[in-house]
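Dear colleagues,

For the upcoming journal club I promised to circulate an example of a predicted protein-ligand complex. I picked one with flavin-adenine dinucleotide because it came up in last month's discussion. The inputs are reproduced below in full, followed by the predicted structure.
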Amino acid sequence: MSIAPQFDLAVVGSGVIGLAHERGMRVVVLERTDRPVGASIRNFGHVGITTQDGKGLDYAIAGRAHWLRLAAQAGFWIREAGTLIVARAEDEWTLLHRFAELRDGSVDLLSPDQARELASIADPRLVGAAFCGNDLRVNSPEAIPALARYLATEGVEFRYRTNVTGVEAGVVHTSRGSVSADKIVIATGHDLDLLFPEITEEAGFKRCLLHMLETDAPAGSQFSPVVLTGTAVLRYDGLSHHAEATSIRERMARDRPELADAFVNVKMSQRPNGRLVLGDTHAYAHTHSPFKEEALDDLLLREFTQLLGVPLTVRRRWHGEYAWAATEPFFVREPAADVFIACVMNGTGMSTGMGFAESVLNRM
Ligand SMILES: Cc1cc2nc3c(=O)[nH]c(=O)nc-3n(C[C@H](O)[C@H](O)[C@H](O)COP(=O)(O)OP(=O)(O)OC[C@H]3O[C@@H](n4cnc5c(N)ncnc54)[C@H](O)[C@@H]3O)c2cc1C
């Protein structure tokens, strides 16, 4: 006589990708820490839809509705605040015109004065900005735990301090015994290689390490949208694939090699308490040095002093890591029957993860 599995679905990992696999079933979430502390709470809280492209854009558009619904149900802070991409050079402004043309109605081009009404940009080089009104902003350290708490009230069982050590069809092996489930989702983010070394090796998997800072906002300033700058054109597929991005890339490599070397993306968002979340640098390796380079934080602070016109007081500093693979941003594998690996490999999981998870659920 066969014994019925304990759960319909077992999810490994309580980051945004694991939590997004919510569906009306008997679900257990297995998480090795005692609360979510991974990439999903260390980011800008930027649900950046408009700068995605291809599949990422489809997932982000689909995910928007899930974020708004879940924020209402779980009661966490969310704002339809949009994204402001500021141009401080003529080639950046030309690219933003092209971007607005292609995004057909979802991007508004703003004069410097209009841009300053949304965000207190002091840099005198400001020539204009693109406003992406569909984008959202959440406060990740609040939103992700609130989402987990809400799902628990809806009947999802959470087993914290439970390290998953192996997975096979129908069974998850953990540091606290085995759990049986019809279907299993592995959403362990940048530690995926610890469970599936061969699969991740084949994909060219690495960990991307980012420096992040939290500072006080300048007195009297206001920042409703998430703010991106010219460096965004090097990072987001919706911007970086255009011919106009090439000259910006070349100019930055020539004139600002220190930014290019550290893969800096000058980006900021404001927390509900007014503080600014500033970032970020990018470094790619299998294992990173544990020692934070102060020079990288200094570089970020110089960039923001220029952008905001005043020196900033740092309140918190941290590292974040996310899973990365050059060739496959939306990584799905089925290593055993009804066992699904689901990993966003390009650092856009807050934006695309909800829609991506829906597509994984639909494959089951
Ligand atoms: C600094 C930073 C800034 C970012 N900014 C943005 C942004 O503005 N917008 C955006 O869209 N994206 C952003 N991202 C990317 C986004 O945060 C990630 O893509 C997303 O959070 C990944 O979610 P995840 O659930 O896969 O990983 P995680 O949030 O890291 O969750 C994985 C979970 O799995 C658990 N786990 C791992 N192994 C095991 C195991 N063996 N057993 C049990 N549990 C396990 C971990 O403890 C962890 O809780 C940023 C990322 C970083 C680091």
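Two points we might discuss: The chain has two domains: 7-46+141-198+328-363, 83-132+206-324. The mean pLDDT is 95.

See you all on Thursday,
B. R.
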